[in-house]
Known about the structure:
Layout: E1 2-8, E2 13-19, E3 30-37, H1 48-63, E4 70-75, E5 86-87, H2 90-98, H3 107-120, E6 126-130, H4 140-143, H5 149-155, H6 164-178, E7 187-192, E8 196-202, E9 205-209, H7 230-238, H8 243-252, H9 255-260, H10 265-273, H11 277-300, E10 306-310, H12 311-316, H13 318-327, H14 337-342, E11 350-351, E12 360-363, H15 368-380
Parallel strand pairs: 1-4, 4-6, 7-10, 10-12
Antiparallel strand pairs: 1-2, 2-3, 5-6, 7-8, 8-9, 11-12
Helix pairs in contact: 10-11, 11-13
This protein binds adenosine-5'-diphosphate (ADP).
Amino acid sequence: MLVLVLNAGSSSLKYSLRRFDPTQPGAGGVKIAKGIVEQIGESEVADHLQAFDIVSGELAEVLGGRTVDAVGHRVVHGGERFTGPALIDNEIIRAIEQLNELAPLHNPPGVQCLRAATRAWPKVPQVAVFDTSFHRTLPEPAWRYALPDELYRRYGIRRYGFHGTSVHYVGQRAAEMLGVPWEKFDGVIAHLGNGASVTAVKHGRSVDTSMGFTPLEGLVMGTRSGDVDPGVLVFLLRKGYDADKLDSLLNRDSGFKALAGHNDMRAITEAAAAGNEEAELALEIAAHRLARYIGGCHVACTGAQAVVLTGGIGENSAPFRARLLTKLGPLGISLDAAANEEATGMDEGLRISTPDSVIEVLVIPTDEERAIAEATLALVGLP
Ligand code: ADP
């Protein structure tokens, strides 16, 4: 059984092809091909349709005469409608397209790829897996903004949360590591990549998360600001900024890029270690805010059994993790420095807290593509 996963980002298209053993569908299958088309819109690849053509060309070579049995698509925003993976048909594609307005940077590429893939493989079942679905369990005090109800009813302005597929996946791995059933797992999960968010999980359900209406709220990210006083936006509007300028300021020209000049965490930690003050301050700002959110999520899940770190930074940056954990001392967390140095680019999870740490800290590699493939298979069923 061959499952293709397509992951359309704002300027990239990733794919991965997995073979599943029909007797062990939950075992994740074996990855037999993967690839990425990058710099879409900034290079000779003009848009995601062209990127899709490149990907389907590469796949045709890998597949020889075979066809894929199912396609799983990552879709960022599922709004309130999509509380779980959805089998694609035209009505579903239109419904996802209606959500483009909520995630103008992230959803349109996904929709383009959905259309292209259903045209290219009309007989193959296709499934959309949403970043927002895992957060469908957010309680109302966590998802409501203190704004007039009219804005929610008219525009759907509320907190949705993102990174759900990754959080669910590493959360389950964390529960396995702790030896507790998923339904009894309480923890704080920080997905730290170019986009970054923290989620509070109580009894295996999302109960709070740092991203909101869009993937812009919360932490300091690669090029996104995370939290700013909304009053700043009103001030800038009065200074002549328009929507596009604000959008690009907050999404593309802020975060580590604004604070340290670029968004490569390895280079930033190296610069800070070499005495660069800008880089040092950027790391302190990001770690300070992250620690504050982790403390908040610890409260939101009524006491975490574990803090879990994942994503490119969480999985690989020992210096950033050490900086963060020093700030988590008041939660009774203490760092095992040797284990922390060891935890880089692993296939398995690793504990980086000392045995007497009140809360365990785990580094667990995420695998969104595997999670999407498994969700796709679960919906499509085995032949
Ligand atoms: P995305 O959100 O785009 O999927 P990733 O999860 O790949 O992003 O994370 C990207 C981030 O991870 C970047 O900030 C990058 O600098 C950082 N990163 C990747 N590898 C390392 C490493 N070996 N050491 C430190 N940081 C790393």
